[in-house]
Amino acid sequence: ELVSRLRWKLRALREERELVLGEARECAGRGEELAAAVRDVCKPNEFERYVTFIGDLEKVVSLLLCLSSRLARVQNAMRRIDGNTDAEERQSLDERHKLLSRQREDAKDLKENLDRRERVVAGILAKYLTEQQLRGYRHFVQLKTSLLIEQKDLEEQIKFFEEQLENLEKSIP
């Protein structure tokens, strides 16, 4: 019964992931339309700032999500440490935790820098776009970010349930 429920949950998560991927494709299409409108009205260097910002947005958000996920896995492994855990494994986990914590702090600094750049880009776009187009830009940036987060969350859940299912199936004779 548990195997059946895990398989059902995995199916539901995969279906949800497909819906989110569809939304991400639609968002990318809107992004292309927005980029074309920005290219038409902005100076080339301003357009380049916009394009660079949008590309960096995805990279920085993905980096933060990845590092946070890896850090959470290391923290979970550290919570499972007991008296039987050898010193080498304990030290390895501690070093990975410190490294990932530093990397995540560096990524947070990148995100703060990206937020400042977003304000600069929004200021540039405010000179050229209508209020409706500017709202569309802001919505696009928020949607792109939230879809990246949702995709990562679903991937993590799917991975977790796949591991649970695999472990359960191995334990059943």
Structure description:
This protein has 173 residues and is mainly alpha-helical. It has one domain (1-171). It is built from 4 helices and no strands. One of its GO terms (cellular component) is cortical actin cytoskeleton. Residues 90-120, 144-171 form a coiled coil.
Which SSEs are present, and which pair or pack?
Elements: H1 2-41, H2 44-79, H3 87-128, H4 131-171
Helix pairs in contact: 1-4, 2-3, 2-4
Can you give keywords for this protein?
173 residues, 4 helices, 0% strand, coiled coil, cytoplasm
- Give the SSE string: HHHH
Gyration radius from CA atoms, angstroms: 21 Å
SSE-based structural type: mainly alpha
What's the count of strands?
Answer: 0
The number of domains is: 1
Mean pLDDT: 94
The major β-sheet equals: none
Given the structure, what is the number of helices? 4
Distance between the termini: 15 Å
Determine the fraction of residues in helical runs and give it as a percent range. Answer: over 70%
In the predicted model, the low-confidence regions spanning at least 5 consecutive residues are: none
Beta-strand proportion: under 5%
Shape: flat
Give a short overview:
With 173 residues, the chain is mainly alpha-helical. It is built from four helices and no strands.
